[in-house]
Structures are given as structure tokens and as C-alpha cells.
Design a protein that fits this description.
Blueprint: H1 3-16, H2 23-30, H3 34-46, E1 51-54, E2 57-60, E3 68-74, H4 80-88, E4 92-101, E5 105-113, H5 116-129, E6 141-148, H6 151-163, E7 167-170
Antiparallel strand pairs: 1-2, 3-6, 3-7, 4-5, 4-6
């Protein structure tokens, strides 16, 4: 199997799956190394495929543009879980986190957090690795791209974040 055939099959599998698929799983299926799969995914993204990644694997990202919102927030490490709960409890899903770094410019990382379980797992990983959230680089200021079910859900999210005194701006 050549690279083009493998990339077509990767897209087909991602379209059929409701769960993330790991690079290791693809590598085993196609009898190649994990690094080859990572390179294939990078090429597929460059070709315009909306492939997102999280710690569980890769997924195709298919959503309606009007359901995508951005929120700018500021908080410390102790409020990460409060922020996550405020969004997921009111019908939102975190797609990414973005910071504007003074040297590196825009840094964006996929999150794919859609539930309290996902949020708890993320914070557990921060705590067990003793890592700092990306927002640590910008004194707590960061942006999230979130997916919402509708405008009512977005209004609830904004209200919840305002009550936590962490919301800066929305778009």
C-alpha cells in the first residue's frame, strides 16, 4: 500500500469513527510506524482536512460554523476546573486553547473537552505531571474556541464565566 492509499483509508476510518483513533492503532492496522502515521496526518491537515488530536487520538472535526464561538478568559491554575465545568455544564465543548505569546506569537493546542470527566482527566494530568497550563505563559490570559449547541447555550456559558469573574470577551 502506498502513502496515498493509506491517507484515503485514514480519512475513511476517521469519518466512520465516533471515537478518537490513535496513531499507534493506525500504525498497527497499516503495518507502518507511528511516525509515518503522524506524518500522514500532518499532510492530510495541510490538504485541508479538519483533523483534531487529543491524548486519545485523532478525530475528524465536523461542525456548523455558527456553532463555533471564541471566549477570552483570565484566571489562575486553581480555576481551570471551574472554567471547564462552566462551559461543559452549559452545553459547550472546548475545541482548543490559544495564547498570544510575546516571542512565539499564536500558540494553539487542541483540547477536545466535552464533559466533566474529560475536564477531570485533563486537570488530573496537570497535577500528576506538575505541568502548568498553557495560559501560564501569558499570566492566565487565554482564548478558547468552543462549540455550542445554540445561542442559548452560549448565553448560559457567558453568564457562568461572568459569575466566576474570569470572562474577558466573547466573539
Amino acid at each position: 500500500m502506498n502513502g496515498e492509499e493509506r491517507k484515503k483509508l485514514i480519512i475513511q476510518r476517521l469519518q466512520q469513527s465516533k471515537e478518537p483513533i490513535s496513531a499507534s492503532s493506525f500504525a498497527k492496522e497499516f503495518a507502518v510506524t507511528r511516525q509515518i502515521i503522524v506524518a500522514d496526518i500532518a499532510l492530510l491537515r495541510a490538504m485541508g482536512h479538519a483533523i483534531i488530536a487529543d491524548n486519545k487520538g485523532y478525530m475528524l472535526h465536523t461542525i456548523e460554523e455558527e456553532n463555533i464561538k471564541r471566549i477570552a478568559v483570565k484566571h489562575d491554575k486553581n480555576q481551570v476546573l471551574d472554567e471547564f465545568y462552566a462551559v461543559v455544564d452549559h452545553g459547550g465543548k472546548f475545541l482548543d486553547v490559544i495564547v498570544e505569546h510575546s516571542i512565539y506569537g499564536r500558540i494553539s493546542v487542541d483540547l477536545n473537552i466535552a464533559s466533566r470527566y474529560d475536564a477531570d482527566e485533563f486537570v488530573k494530568k496537570i497535577n500528576t505531571t506538575k505541568a502548568n497550563p498553557l495560559s501560564f505563559l501569558t499570566e492566565g490570559v487565554h482564548i478558547h474556541t468552543i462549540e455550542v449547541a445554540d445561542e442559548n447555550a452560549f448565553a448560559r456559558i457567558k453568564d457562568a464565566l461572568t459569575k466566576l469573574n474570569i470572562l474577558i470577551e466573547t466573539t
